Amino acid sequence: MKKHLLLLSLLLCIACLQVTLAQSTKIQGHIFDNESQKPVSGASVSVKGKNTGAVTNADGLFELNTSLPATLVISLVGYARQEAVVASAENLRFNLVPAIEELNQVVVTASRVEESILRSPVSIEKMDARAIQQTPSANFYDGLINMKSLDMVTSSLTYKQINTRGFNTTGNSRFLQLVDGVDNQPSGLGFAMGNLFGPHDIDVESAELIPGAASALYGPIAFNGMLNTRTKNAFEYQGLSAQTKFGVNHINDGTDLGAKPMYDLAVRYAKAFNNKFAFKVNASYLKGTDWYANDYTDIDPNTLAANRGPNNPGKNQLNIYGDEVAQTLPEIGRVSRTGYEEKDLATYGVYSLKLNAALHYRITDKLEVIYQGNFNQGTAQYTGSNRFVINDFKFIQHKLELKGSNFYVRGYSNQEISTNSYNTRALGQHINRTWVKDLNGATVSPDKADATWFERYAAAYNGAVTGIINKDHNTARSFADEGRILPGSDAFNSSKDLLIKTRGLSGAGILSECSLRHVEGMYDFSSAVKVFNLQIGGNYRKYYLDTGGTLFDDKDKNLTNEEYGVFAQASKSLWKERLKFTVSGRYDTNENFDGRFTPRASAVFSPTENHHFRASYQTGFRNPTVADQFIKLNVGPIIILGGAPVNSQGLNAYENSVTIASFGAFAGAFGADMAKGTPFPQAVANNKDKLVKSNVPYIKSEKVKSFEIGYKGLISKKLLFDVNYYYSQYTDFMINTVVARAKSDILLANGSVNPAAAAELLGADRQLFQLYTNAADQVSIQGVSAGVTYSLPRNFKLSGNATWIDFNIGEADQNNIPAFNTPEWKSNVIFGNPRLTDKLGFNIAWHWQTAFEWYGTFTENNPGKVQAYNLLDAQVSYRIPSLKTTVKVGGSNITNKYIVQAYGSPAVGGLYYVSLNFDQLFR
Is omega for the bond preceding 69 within 30 degrees of 0, making it cis? Predict the structure, then answer.
């Protein structure tokens, strides 16, 4: 820690030494539209390599102070970016021409420095401010689904998770999301909650997506890719902006609940003073009714598929909770408890509150300090091992950054406060334990409720209860359910509220007040080295865990976890800028794991200005999340134990246990001998050698190696073509394995199984553990993605992309590999015209993907089919210049086909909206 804090301090000192005083000259000029020759307001004019800049007023006028000569950069959404060298302070005039924004954009995420998207060394996609304005989706984040290679999973109206290149999940800890350089994950959850805690559309300047491993530059979380979202700078985007959006969903959703409204209100204000100080504030509030998870398919794995269904006494229905509790009753068969529907347990009134403020102060024309604060609060449903209600979840961020033209140093903190969240499945099970009566009519305690319910069921079914028809499952269930509290009743609501407030195994509530602190910096030495471009940086992060002992062993303890990393990148252009080589390397370590080096190498060959071929070798790794390392949860018959060595000290679970498979074989053979009358010690001795000592390593990082080739070309300045092929190999996937521990040593000194330990495993001294570890199996994937964008006459634009991905499990054990959860094929087509007339525009987006099997912990990794589906989004916008307002009418999934994107998650239908967008500068 001290070493890397020293490194960051050194970077800061070097950066400060570069600041020199130079004589400034006041320059001014006008910006006009090239076609209409009307003044352009709101255009950004900045000095390349400095923090100096200005925004044009209503007359297209700008003024700024800078030393001469200087290179001015002029940009505005919808126009081509211009650079011009200015040598004198004479009155300047620039004409902006309309831009086809996808064809030659500037990106920063691929190499951490500005570069043309055409010459990016790896695959990268970008959605800029204009595309955000034009997206027909309900918001920019939903519109990301139209990027090639990207998969999206909906768990809630307010929570959608994204992923690239396979191994998709509803809580993706393999994918990094940055907002203005800040990791957007709540540290206790271990993954970003989509855009529930991200910026509102009204403040988003761009979003850049890297599909595939990006660990060489961004560290362990960027294992499967990353999304880098940049908000609007307070200097460049000034004035008042506001949006009001009214929508409706749940139209013809198959229930009798009717359509539901959605409201989304946002306001942004930014102001700059003398090109020295600027601030911005944002506030937004969304409220709506969540999608219903109401699939009642019987998925009981212990019932033959042909016997499942509504008449199965042991049915386990997908979105009914409490019926997972089941027993096989003698001479009756498998019977499950009567559960509660999710709609009676969940919180379907969801919302999202976002408050943001930023302060910018330019110390010199090369040095700027920024403070940014975010407060977010919201409710969403999340499909994990259970359906969780992330309820009134607060997420607070602070960032302080010092940046210059060739360096930055930033520190930030993320704090989560979750005191009202809960587990709906646990809630259903616990409510079922509050009202059960014994055969005498007395309500029993919760610890006896399940057993008593099954006793009542068996008694009624076997005819032991007067007046009850025997051998009838319906009457037996009705008798066992006597006294059951019904949804909506006072007793139900009271029990529900109490159990949500009760945390740990005796309730459904979830407490997490975890946080993280992060410091990082980077310096670009290119101007000093000159022979080649060189960037060096590093970071330090510390997690602070606080779940009150409900999830981690952190009650009355200061449980923390530290990690740090350093990276360097060098690039060199040869052969008159036609060939560019880039090499990167990053070293990361965590206090609980060995250090990891991740290299990346790439080459871009540009035979002409508009044709670019690329090849790259990339590596990535993923450290275990804090939950993977530190979970310590005693759930009765088994202890769930994270894989950090410090987490299992004193438990002897990794060191002195047997595999659960060998224990099963031993116990079965022992029982058979006992049934023959063999004495206990002899039965143990006869079968103890069936036990196999486990060899479970402590958890370590997952790894990936990836090779990619691609081409990106611009033809006749109207057609952009992009294609790539990649091949990736994955090893050391994190898995769970179950072992049985004895108190005595499993093996004797001679290596044979200890009879005393074998005997203990048959009794109360046996303890089962679910351990976090890694599998040695190796798998590979390969894929191709291609995209075309064509600029048609009169501002029409047509674009399309397609992605194919293939998963090769090879000889790996499927139980040791995370679920791939990715369609083989997906494609998108977008057609639109932002300027059909001076005031009218439209956009249509179509998404399609093939069917695939979804495996998830929600269904105990039993597969469920995600059917092939397509989505059609559309919008029409009308500009009212006199009011500086755009009216937008549109809809997501306008055909209203209810589709499921992850098995067990809700079906998503159409969302239709109308919005008013006011912009003081009317960009």
Answer: yes
